[in-house]
Amino acid sequence: METVQCDSCHSDQTVFDRTATQSIALQPPYAVVSCRNCGLAFMNPRMTAEEYRNFYASKEYLNEYGYEDLLVTSRIREFNRALDQIEQRQRPPGRLLDVGTATGEFLVEAKKRGWTVSGTEISDSSVTIAKEKHQLDIFHGWLDQAPFSKHSFDIIHLSHVLEHVPSPQTMLKTIASFLKPTGLVVVEVPHEFDNWFVRLGRSLGRFQPSTHPSMHHVYFFTPRTLDDALRRAGFLAEVTTYSLNVPYRTLPPPLRMLGRLATEIIDRLNGGIYIQAFARPMTEQPE
Ligand SMILES: [Zn+2]
Questions:
Q1: How much is the CA Rg of the chain, to the nearest whole Å?
Q2: Domain extent listing, the chain
Q3: Given a cut of 80, is residue 61 above it in pLDDT?
């Protein structure tokens, strides 16, 4: 276990967030806190890097979050949506890197569209699946150890990665070193406690807190704190939220239209379930 200061602004002044801590069933001493200075929410204290390595290698984690099936069945559409949005800003050909690519399905879709693809992944079994199933040569390890040339990528994509790492600032700075000065970074993270569907569920008394402690997220971004983290790492970002079809797909048909409309409005007001940022390096670094 370790105690840390705020990754974005280095303040050690924090406020305990009881609602967030309870909603992911954290047991003391683990807790969700938010920085008094910049508002970033994070787990503190938390497991050490060594403890996280063992945690991610454990059978319980893989059983509980066996993401291969989840990826294949439900996320292909989400990946193509992200690729459409990338290509509205920058067209292939070019070099695209997916950090934490798991079994490589995002890269398979990107390759079909003409991108030259690379990936990194810390899970040994995922790298093997990516190679055997998709013939992808994924770097097995952390991004800062990857043998890529400096400033060589046009696009760097991180989907549901930044909330897991010990220091988003360190990772974003490593990303800046691999990205071309004209390149684009695409970051997606969950909007965990503040999305409007959770808020609505709470106000209707229908929110079910998790019964099992959720230890795998270390950071809990909001659109504002993600934008702030990117700016501090030297990026200028457009930040939005989206919910895809998650909140209304289970509704009966007459309500589905209404659900879709409500979801679109909520997404526009930054209340959606996922946060997405498109960011480019600032020409002049802050500080
Ligand atoms: Zn802070």
A1: 19
A2: 14-281
A3: no
Q: Which residues pair with 96 in a beta bridge?
A: 117, 155
Q: Is the pLDDT of residue 75 over 60?
A: yes
* Ligand 1 centre distance from Cα of residue 38 (Å): 4
Rounded distance from Cα 8 to ligand 1 centre (Å): 5
Top pLDDT among 89 and 122 is at: 89
**CA 21 to ligand 1 centroid distance, Å:** 18
Per-residue pLDDT tens for 3-29?
A: 999 999 999 999 999 999 999 999 999
CA distances from 5 to 33, 166, 168, 194 (A): 11, 11, 13, 22
What are 123-140's pLDDT values in tens digits?
888 899 999 999 999 999
Could you please state the CATH topology (level 3) that the domain comprising 14-281 is classified under. Rossmann fold (3.40.50)
Ligand 1: centre distance to CA 225 (Å):
9
Give, as residue ranges, everything with CB less than 5 Å from ion ligand 1.
Answer: 6, 8-9, 11, 35, 37-38, 40
CA of 130 to the centre of ligand 1 (A): 37
What's the pLDDT at 249?
Answer: 66
Q: What are phi and psi of 285, to 5 degrees?
A: -70, 140
Which of 155, 184, 13 is CA-nearest to residue 93?
Answer: 155
To the nearest 5 percent, what fractions of the chain are helix, strand and coil? 40, 20, 40
Residue range 226-248: average pLDDT?
90
The Å distance, Cα 5 to ligand 1 centre, comes to 8
Q: Which two tokens stand for residue 213?
A: 């402690």
